[in-house]
Amino acid sequence: MTNSKLFSDSKKVIPSGVNSPVRYFEPYPFFTKKSNGAYLWDVENKKYIDFCNGYGALLLGHRRKEIINAVSNQLSKGTLYCTPTEAETELSKLIIGNFPSIDKVRLVNTGGEATMTAIRLARGFTKKKKIIKFEGCYHGAHDSVLVKAGSGSAHNGISVSEGGLDEVSKNTLVVQYNNIEDFQKTINQNKDIAGVIVEPILANMGLILPEKNFLYDLRKITKENNIPLIFDEVVTGFRVSPGGAQEHFGIKSDITTMAKALSNGFTIAAVGGRKEIIDLLSPGGKVYQASTFAGNPISVSAAISSIKTINKLKNKLYSKLERFNLLFTTALDDMATDMHIAHQINFTASMFQIFFTNKPVINYETSKKADSKKFQKMFRTLLKKGIFIAPSQFEVVFLSDAHTENDLNKTLDAYDAALKSVKN
Ligand code: PMP
Fold first, then answer.
1. Is the pTM here over 0.95, yes or no?
2. Which of 190, 276, 322, 375 is close enough to 393 for a disulfide, judged by CB 3.0 to 4.6 Å?
3. Cα 288 to ligand 1 centroid, rounded to whole Å
4. Class of domain 65-309
5. Ligand 1 nearest atom to the CA of residue 110, by list position
6. Which residues neighbour 406 within 8 Å (Cβ) at sequence distance 6 or greater?
7. Which residues form the catalytic set?
8. Where are residues bearing N6-(pyridoxal phosphate)lysine located in the sequence (predicted)?
9. What is the 111 CA–ligand 1 centroid distance (Å)?
10. Helix, strand, or coil here: 380?
11. CA 137 – ligand 1 centroid, Å
């Protein structure tokens, strides 16, 4: 089977042939047959070095031995019980151990489910209605947060989805990322704020770092006004450090959401936070939340194994990834500079993105101004050369523990060709 034949088949039975919008790219995506370590293989047996890495989930690489062993072991004992298990308590203790801001945690399945629950909790706790989000931050595909969102929705130019209720999204106030004056003004003008949700490092408009003091000021102002601060750590949790961006910046949020690297490739997410907030969840409290697959033993075993592996490797893992990232982005920067290509590179921990613009990329507007046609050209050349990055300017390049220096050198050669294709 070829990729082209599989795509024409899939289009007949799957809308646009893909099960999540950002998976589509022109003329058609490749169809993966297997993965291992740092690599994907498509149905035509072409091998790719993977830098999409499950949109950040695969911090430890594909089919990581420890995790596959834990899951295989659990498979022989059952896949879904829908009763409590000891493993769920073990996992919750591990999460709480890594995130000092969390007293209690509830397991859910996806990042979107976690942020939906976090927002409902904030509303239940404060008995207020409105939430504040930041331009370009993506928190999942539900009505409250699909307002000026990043990721696939930014890419496709959809800010508020058709079918989404204005009655819901009008309660979402949008503030410019990295603009604390805009935030303070919005707080001063609105007394009905139930919560503030933010990606502590914005990884859905390309990569955008919080400017000095932005997160500290957010924390200070929300505290002064008794407004719960939600850190959406779906990307940053376990990726930036074992305790996420909040450990990295030394800031405690009131509610935290996490997913992706929590389990290194299995379906699980979590919402945690201060006891008095999280305890509002049903059945003990009046904030309703439920799911058949929540805390399923397969994903829980993967998450326990992921956290234990991360905690064991700790500095070795994070300092290696940071070193690789620094070496890689420095070389990339030199290449683009030598070719006189206007560009910016934002990077931190094991994530980076290049933007084709001569202005620093610090928010939604400046990211949108970068030349995304050039980015698409670069993407296609990289793909031809066997390098798979997420197919959008508004995503991020993710390194994993499975990448070797050799992989990175090959990737730099491919970027060299890709930048030349952008220049011409
Ligand atoms: N929050 C952030 C920061 C994300 O990046 C994403 C997904 N990319 C989500 C929430 C939604 O997660 P999911 O796709 O698992 O619903």
1. yes
2. 375
3. 21
4. alpha beta
5. 15
6. none
7. 138, 232, 260
8. 260
9. 5
10. helix
11. 10
